[in-house]
Design brief:
This protein is an alpha/beta fold. The chain has seven helices and 14 strands.
């Protein structure tokens, strides 16, 4: 079992909007990877190995005179993560078609009902990037398509891809906690065509896919883009997210250099998710 340790920052924000949205966006840039909005503000999580004492120095909204923002933080033991999520994890419904909920929530009357026990993994649908990737999957044809889900987190996108008829599917994450959590969630949703793999882009080998999904972060995407494209069949679709509107030019340039054609952009609270065709 990986010994990944997270820090939880508990922010109290007054007034909450638009401060909470701005705070989440700035924390995302700083390396925080998971957020839960609370009655008092927002809780943000970051891996301890990504943390440093000056992590909040560039969070400009903390210096704003328009809002009162205070915080405390602590180390989060993995064993406490279920309790954290049961306190804060509310179900979501995307485009009246896909629900993402925990096992303790009632079932939704939608076409795609996904049950996720998120633990410390990233990808409950609450974050803008996961939400938009779900929208992309709902809008596009996945039937009998081979799919690669890079940085699969909880496995939610791979699970939805299978529910839309994709097969076979490889779901890959370098984090052992995400790998184990994806295995659990794949089984929980009775998926039969998903292979969960622990690793990064170096494990891809010579497999080819009709669709590649990568919801990671800008730097990893730029670093591994050529590897993703080398695995993509001609005419295949590439879906990218994990970055902001301001990052689009550098992402588009990298894709253009790899002979990809830009197709569509989704935007949500300054986060974006792009579709390219090979």
């Amino acid at each position: 079992m990986s010994n990944t340790i997270y820090l939880g920052y508990y922010f109290k924000v007054e007034p909450q909007q638009p401060a909470v949205e701005i705070l989440i966006a700035e924390l995302g840039y700083a390396g925080f990877e998971s957020f839960v909005e609370t009655e008092e503000g927002v809780t943000a999580y970051i891996q301890k190995e990504e943390w440093n004492q000056s992590i909040l120095e560039d969070i400009q909204i903390l210096n704003s005179d328009e809002f009162e923002i205070s915080f405390t933080f602590e180390e989060i033991e993995q064993t406490n993560w279920n309790a954290e999520w049961e306190k804060n994890f509310n179900p979501i419904v995307v485009d009246d078609a896909c629900a993402v909920r925990a096992p303790f929530h009632e079932k939704f009357n939608v076409e795609y009902d996904i049950v996720i026990e998120p633990k410390m993994s990233f990808g409950t649908g609450h974050h803008e990037t996961t939400h938009m990737m779900i929208q992309h999957i709902l809008k596009n044809d996945f039937k009998d398509k081979s799919v690669l889900d890079m940085g699969c987190g909880t496995g939610v996108l791979a699970i939805l891809a299978e529910k839309k008829g994709a097969k076979p599917i490889d779901a890959i994450d370098y984090d052992n906690w995400c790998y184990l959590n994806s295995l659990e969630n794949v089984e929980r949703n009775n998926c039969e065509h998903i292979t969960v793999i622990e690793g990064d882009a170096s494990v891809l080998g010579k497999n080819k896919y009709d669709i590649v999904i990568a919801n990671i972060n800008r730097n990893i995407l730029l670093q591994d883009m050529a590897t993703y494209v080398s695995c993509l069949n001609k005419g295949g679709m590439l879906f990218l997210s994990g970055f902001y509107n301001d990052d689009i030019p550098i992402i588009k340039e990298a894709c253009k250099n790899l002979m990809l054609n830009f197709e569509e952009k989704l935007e949500r609270n300054n986060w974006v998710a792009l579709k390219f065709i090979n």
